[in-house]
């Protein structure tokens, strides 16, 4: 290899430049940036950078994560949340295997699915949500690409 790399031209198209594949996603980081909230909400929607393992710390407020645009079929994402007072809501695409772990002292945890995503084939994706909470609820909802989100989930874009 010559230094500096040759400039692309008619004789050397693209030589010395990294290959760019349209639509290919960059490799996902092992750990994402920590999400920290003192008073208020932490909301992530759309295409946001998430690591294979993301940790969130919330003192008083809600944690709302929309993973529909960031989860690639066949991959596993782990979300770990430590919440003193507040709810945790995670929205995942249809066909995703969901595991909810952890404990909440005063509150409950559940997974929900809408009618549009009930019949979707499995994508091979998995989301593991581990929540340790003193007061609050944990909700993980599987939502298809179609349909309107129910009340309480309209913070996520459709």
UniProtKB/TrEMBL annotation:
Pfam families: LiaF-like_C. It comes from the Bacteria. InterPro entries: LiaF-like_C. Residues 47-110 form the Cell wall-active antibiotics response LiaF-like C-terminal domain. This is Cell wall-active antibiotics response 4TMS YvqF.
